[in-house]
């Protein structure tokens, strides 16, 4: 019996099926090992983000566990990693400092509720309005930010850190060329940890980042008064957290779609992020969203494709910090730095900065990408970078389209009388219709004027106003204007907004 070609050469969609993966030991091993590597990498990150937020390290670690497990079950983007993040930590830190942990936990829960509501009203559909160059800028900025976050681990440290980090880089870059049986990042972590332990080298390790928890997370109800005053305090932070978390999660999901050549359910992912934050809040966690660095470790470095890897990442994280905390504390930071530098290299879109690409790409497109990168890196806020990038792209598009409108003038005979016919070409909206008023010869034209709109479309009230100004100007000179060729949508808009019948 010939082999099943679908089994030998699975499609990307088949590869992310949980049931198929459970039946294939090779695929399952990839998912489990990918989750293990991500679980190890999450530990120092979660601790560091807890410090940024001003809370106990256990708050970040428990949040990473609950976020990963909940999103693994409910999320719409398989293999994407969600956990405690720096973006959320930066948003929430001022509230922790001013009102304490209980208000902070209440904010996480409220942010989750807001995300669920936003998902139900269709906020995920707004992703279609994010241009590709903004996405490229987002990816490149993330790679730069991840690299910058590793720099402090390489300063004011024992000299042994540098050869260890170099060895780790050699492993993660070279090993995949020979074998992919075991993820290269996991090999790097194990090898460097064994070297440090065997030779008793005194180098910074995970244990130096903070105390690991010794018990499982428990349910927690924030002790805050249920009043309007409390809502006024936490609502601004909750809205900011919800928006930043959703934006980063949906952008990361779109990136994973491209990497895996599959599609994801963005609406499902949006409400799953909200549910995960609600669950995290009731377990005393700091909340979070998708993490592009750990996601790239899982998807690109480890080759994982299903929810199994995300679920394993959360479970392994909890086991590692609660049961094997003493062993995990021995992992040298040099190993994790090497892994994250590899992630930066793999994440950055090198094609976007090649001289040949920059030469071929329109300057406006390159500007959009650079604005997104600079704004994100400068503010350390992905939401600001993406929003500015989209605004610049909108302005560039409006400016470019505005120049596509033309008006051609032609003298014709109509019923034995001279007439003038203007043919308008192009899409008319607020940017392109501003100069429409100046394209007609009001004083010199004969008494009958025909404006042919067959090759144009009216998009907004600004265009209707511009067209009304043209007809009013001709009436001032005692001339009759006839507008012909409006398509149905444009005619209805002019009838409604212009307050007049159609000629």
Short note summarizing the structure:
The strands form 2 sheets. Strands 3-4-5-6 form a 4-stranded mixed sheet. With 503 residues, the chain is α/β, with parallel strands linked by helices. The protein has 21 helices and 6 strands.
Spell out the key features of this protein.
503 residues; alpha/beta; Transcription Regulator spoIIAA; two-stranded antiparallel sheet; 6 strands; 61% helix; elongated; transmembrane; STAS_dom; SulP family inorganic anion transporter; STAS_dom_sf; SLC26A/SulP_dom
Judged by helices, strands and strand pairing, the structural class is: alpha/beta
N-end to C-end Cα span: 74 Å
Uncertain spans? 1-6
| Mean of residue pLDDT values | 87
Order of helices and strands: HHHHHEHHHHHHHEHHHHHHHEEEHEH
Query: Biggest β-sheet, characterized?
Result: 4 strands, mixed
Q: What global shape is seen?
A: elongated
Number of strands: 6
Helix residue percentage: 55-70%
Q: Which radius of gyration do the C-alpha atoms yield?
A: 29 Å
Strand order of the largest sheet: 3-4-5-6
Topology, please?
Elements: H1 5-8, H2 12-15, H3 18-23, H4 25-53, H5 57-74, E1 82-83, H6 86-99, H7 101-120, H8 132-150, H9 161-174, H10 184-198, H11 228-260, H12 266-282, E2 289-290, H13 292-301, H14 307-322, H15 325-328, H16 333-347, H17 355-360, H18 363-379, H19 382-402, E3 406-414, E4 417-428, E5 448-458, H20 461-476, E6 480-484, H21 488-498
Parallel strand pairs: 4-5, 5-6
Antiparallel strand pairs: 1-2, 3-4
Helix pairs in contact: 4-5, 4-6, 4-13, 4-14, 5-12, 5-14, 6-7, 6-11, 7-11, 7-12, 8-16, 8-18, 8-19, 9-10, 9-16, 10-16, 11-12, 11-13, 13-16, 18-19, 20-21
């Amino acid at each position: 019996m010939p082999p099943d070609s679908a089994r030998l050469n699975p499609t990307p969609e088949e590869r992310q099926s949980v049931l198929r993966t459970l039946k294939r030991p090779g695929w399952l091993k990839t998912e489990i090992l990918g989750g293990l590597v991500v679980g190890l990498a999450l530990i120092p990150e979660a601790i560091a983000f807890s410090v940024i937020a001003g809370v106990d390290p256990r708050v970040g670690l428990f949040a990473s566990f609950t976020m990963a497990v909940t999103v693994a079950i409910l999320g719409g983007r398989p293999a994407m990693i969600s956990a405690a993040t720096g973006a959320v930590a930066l948003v929430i830190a001022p509230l922790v400092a001013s009102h304490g942990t209980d208000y902070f936990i209440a904010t996480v829960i409220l942010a989750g509720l807001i995300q669920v509501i936003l998902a139900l009203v269709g906020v995920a559909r707004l992703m279609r309005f994010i241009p590709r160059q903004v996405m490229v800028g987002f990816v490149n900025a993330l790679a730069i930010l991840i690299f910058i976050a590793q720099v402090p681990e390489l300063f004011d440290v024992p000299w042994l850190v540098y050869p260890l980090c170099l060895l780790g880089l050699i492993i993660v870059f070279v090993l995949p060329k020979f074998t992919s049986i075991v993820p290269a990042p996991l090999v790097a972590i194990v090898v460097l940890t064994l070297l440090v332990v065997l030779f008793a080298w005194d180098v910074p390790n995970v244990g130096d980042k903070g105390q690991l928890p010794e018990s499982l997370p428990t349910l927690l109800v924030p002790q805050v008064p249920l009043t309007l005053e409390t809502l006024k305090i936490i609502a601004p932070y909750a809205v900011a957290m919800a928006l930043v978390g959703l934006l980063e999660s949906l952008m990361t999901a779109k990136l994973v779609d491209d990497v895996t050549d599959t599609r994801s359910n963005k609406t499902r992912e949006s409400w799953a992020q909200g549910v995960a934050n609600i669950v995290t809040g009731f377990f005393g966690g700091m909340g979070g969203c998708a993490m592009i660095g750990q996601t790239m470790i899982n998807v690109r470095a480890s080759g994982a494709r299903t929810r199994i890897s995300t679920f394993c990442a959360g479970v392994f994280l909890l086991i590692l910090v609660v049961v094997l905390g003493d062993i995990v504390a021995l992992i040298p930071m040099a190993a994790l730095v090497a892994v994250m530098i590899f992630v930066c290299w793999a994440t950055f879109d090198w094609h976007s900065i090649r001289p040949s690409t920059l030469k071929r790409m329109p300057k406006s497109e390159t500007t959009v990408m650079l604005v997104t990168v600079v704004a994100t890196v400068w503010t350390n806020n992905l939401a600001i970078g993406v929003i500015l990038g989209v605004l610049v792209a909108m302005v560039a598009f409006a400016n470019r389209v505005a120049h596509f409108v033309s008006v051609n003038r032609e003298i014709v005979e109509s019923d034995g009388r001279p007439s003038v016919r203007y043919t308008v070409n192009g899409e008319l909206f607020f940017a392109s219709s501003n100069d429409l008023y100046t394209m007609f010869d009001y004083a010199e034209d004969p008494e009958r004027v025909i404006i042919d709109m067959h090759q144009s479309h009216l998009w907004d009230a600004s265009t209707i106003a511009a067209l009304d100004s043209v007809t009013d100007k001709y009436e001032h000179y005692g001339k009759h204007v006839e507008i012909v060729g409006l398509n149905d949508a444009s005619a209805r808009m002019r009838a409604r907004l212009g307050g007049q019948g159609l000629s």
